[in-house]
Amino acid sequence: MSDNKEVAKAKNTGVSAYEGMEQYSGTGFGEVGTEDLSIPFLRILAQLSPQVNKQDGAYVAGAEAGMMFNTVLNEVYDGDQGIQVVPCHYNRRFVEWKQREAGGGYVGSYLPDDPIKDTTTQNERGQDVLPNGNLLTNTSQFFVLMLHPTFGAQRVLMTMSSTQLKKGRKWLTQAQSMTAKGKNGIYVLPLMSQVYTVKTTPEKNDKGNWFGWDISRERGLNLSVPADKDIFESAVGFAKSVEAGEVKVKDEAPEEAKDVTPNTSDGNKDIM
75-77 and 68-70 as β-strands: parallel, antiparallel, unpaired? Predict the structure, then answer.
């Protein structure tokens, strides 16, 4: 993770870097609405990602292929060490992208039952191409809380397409297998009841090499622990905001989308 000298110094002395600011909570954000905010994406950096290129204006110090990148905090996280997240909401969308030759970039997203998916044809690389020449990718979207060591629970979006779709299915299957015994018998625990560690792992097939997601369960949240209860309540609130349509995915991805085109052989080219 990117270093912050002031925060590090505060940790060493046992004093919060932001001590004394609580009374000013929210000051300065008077007219900020949901339409002014964008949810960060958590992405895996590839060899061609601008953040790893020292000659690119988007370069992030210390960034390497296989690291994870927060598009709003502009931070990178070690893919081997990983970070902890709490999944809050899941959905699936068909996402339309301009091809690299056309400048790249996000166009829009569609519900799984939208008839647009029936208008595609496959190119020689196995990609679904729309009549207008744009690509359409089947994408799993996980809205999660990233447990940031400095800023606490942060709302971020993880997307999975191409070879990574199976990772998303495995994650959902594991989450739905988590049960507990209640007053009325056995019930399935809510999605946001568990903490998972997200790492990256090198992958390859006959068409190339890339980095993919590696997700494992860390622990369950304990509502008798104040910190865990706060995380759970924040996660429930995030899920409700997504379900109500209050969380807008404003595709911060354009910078990456211009450099990376979805490819059915490369899980690291999930450009959302």
Answer: antiparallel
| Residue 170 included in any domain | yes
Q: Which residue has the tokens 């690119």?
A: 56
Q: Are 63 and 55 in contact (CB under 8 A)?
A: no
User: Looking at the 3D structure of the chain, how many domains does it have?
Assistant: 1
Q: How far is CA 108 from CA 12, 96, 156, 249, in A?
A: 46, 5, 19, 10
Rounded to whole angstroms, the Cα distance separating 141 from 158 reads 6
Model pLDDT for residues 4-46, shown as the tens digit of each residue: 444 334 444 444 566 667 666 656 645 444 444 578 889 999 9
Residue 19 located in a structural domain? no
What is the residue range of 244's domain? Answer: 36-269
Q: Sign of the C-alpha dihedral, residues 129, 130, 131, 133?
A: negative
Asked, for residue 1, whether it belongs to a domain, the answer is: no
Beta bridge partners of 197: 84, 216
Q: For residue 30, is it within any domain?
A: no
pTM to 2 decimal places: 0.78
